[in-house]
Write a structure and sequence with these properties.
By secondary structure, the chain is of the alpha/beta class. It has helices at residues 6-10, 56-65, 80-91, 133-150, 167-179, 206-212, 221-235, 273-286, 291-306, 316-326, and strands spanning 15-20, 22-35, 42-55, 69-77, 95-102, 108-115, 118-125, 154-158, 184-187, 201-202, 239-243, 249-253, 256-260. The strands form two sheets. A nine-stranded mixed sheet has the order 5-4-1-8-9-10-11-12-13, sandwiched between helices. The protein has a four-stranded mixed sheet with strand order 3-2-6-7. The protein is globular and about 65 Å long. It starts with 5 loop residues before the first helix and ends with a helix. The model has no long low-confidence stretch (mean pLDDT 92).
Length: 327
């Protein structure tokens, strides 16, 4: 990739398949100006509510907003929340032909209650449901047909430990990706952290990494490099990408590595930043970007998301403006 501006010109050339735990994020906004007489808790005068795509669905939304074509695979409950989420995917032009509803599943809903910009409460509605070996076989048959008609350029797996990415499902998807030489980019969680053997990009955050690496990891090059060596030995991943929140990102690829700081900014909410980062890292890798270019684009994407309230896709215009200033 010759320049950062080229990134937005080329996203339309790619088709990305996203798989993982699909969620509906619900927001209830209001005003708080008194304490309840019944208990020492604030009284929210509800003013508005909003549904947003969450989990792996937010990754798909990021890819779509960035200009690439996107398809999504996953499961949801045959319930009102699932129907709402499916309708939102379709309205965004996201291909949901590989999404399956089940009567014994419950769509994960995270409801956040906010008074102004103050986060007061989160309510989770979910039931853990592991994908079975039989479901992995059925999805594999669908993927073979899908590959023959609309092959993806890369696969992103966004794991939130809600059950879609079970061990049989992960093994099947990795085999499928290797069979067809499709780059596999993974944003892991702790339960299946070391299941993603052979991933192209493996992107844990620092907290997740520290929970799984058997030695201390500090935010300095030598320590992070040792951690990526450990990941390389145990996962055979091509690129290790460790997100470091306000400290930026550490990238390592085949002997090349760097700690890339992000610019100082006002952080409103970190929710959704990881979804944006795995999305742009995948697209930048497909374009042949250098590690420095990948890091710059990832820091910009994660940063602009952190300036918004709640889970939301990357603001492309804000991202273009920030990258334009860099050149």
């Amino acid at each position: 990739m010759k320049s950062l501006s080229e990134f937005f010109d080329r996203t339309k050339d790619y088709h990305i398949l996203v798989g993982g735990d699909l969620m509906l994020d619900r927001y209830m906004w209001g005003r708080v100006d008194r304490i309840s007489p019944e208990a020492p808790v604030p009284v929210l005068q509800l003013q508005s509510s909003e549904n947003r795509l969450g989990g792996a669905a937010n990754v798909a939304l990021n890819i779509s907003r960035l200009g690439a074509r996107v398809s999504i695979m996953g499961t949801f409950g045959n319930d009102p929340a699932g129907e709402a989420m499916l309708g939102m995917l379709r309205s965004e032009g996201i291909n949901s032909s590989l999404v399956t509803g089940f009567n014994d599943a419950q769509t994960t809903v995270k409801t956040r209650v906010l008074g102004g910009h103050q986060h007061l409460l989160r309510i989770d509605e979910e039931r853990h449901r592991e994908s079975s070996r039989e479901e992995a076989v059925i999805l594999r048959e669908k993927l073979d047909l899908f590959q023959g008609t609309d092959a993806p350029d890369a696969i992103i797996l966004q794991d939130y430990n809600k059950g879609f990415l079970s061990s049989p499902m992960i093994r099947m998807l990795l085999y499928f990706a290797h069979l067809y030489s499709i780059p596999m980019c993974v944003d892991p969680k702790k339960e299946n952290f070391f299941e993603y053997n052979g991933a192209t990009i493996f992107k844990p955050n620092l907290r997740e990494l520290r929970a799984k690496i058997p030695f201390p990891v500090e935010i300095q090059k030598e320590s992070l490099l040792a951690a990526t060596h450990y990941l390389g030995e145990n996962l055979k991943c091509e690129i290790s990408a460790i997100t470091l929140s306000e400290h930026g990102i550490f990238l390592a690829r085949q002997g090349e590595y760097g700690l890339f700081p992000t610019k100082a900014r006002t952080v409103v909410d970190v929710c959704g930043a990881g979804d944006a980062v795995i999305s742009v890292l995948t697209l930048a890798h497909l374009m042949g970007a250098s590690l420095a270019q990948m890091a710059t684009i990832a820091n910009a994407a994660g940063g602009v998301v952190c300036e918004e309230v709640g889970v939301c896709p990357v603001n492309v215009e804000a991202m273009k403006e920030e990258l334009g200033e860099i050149g």
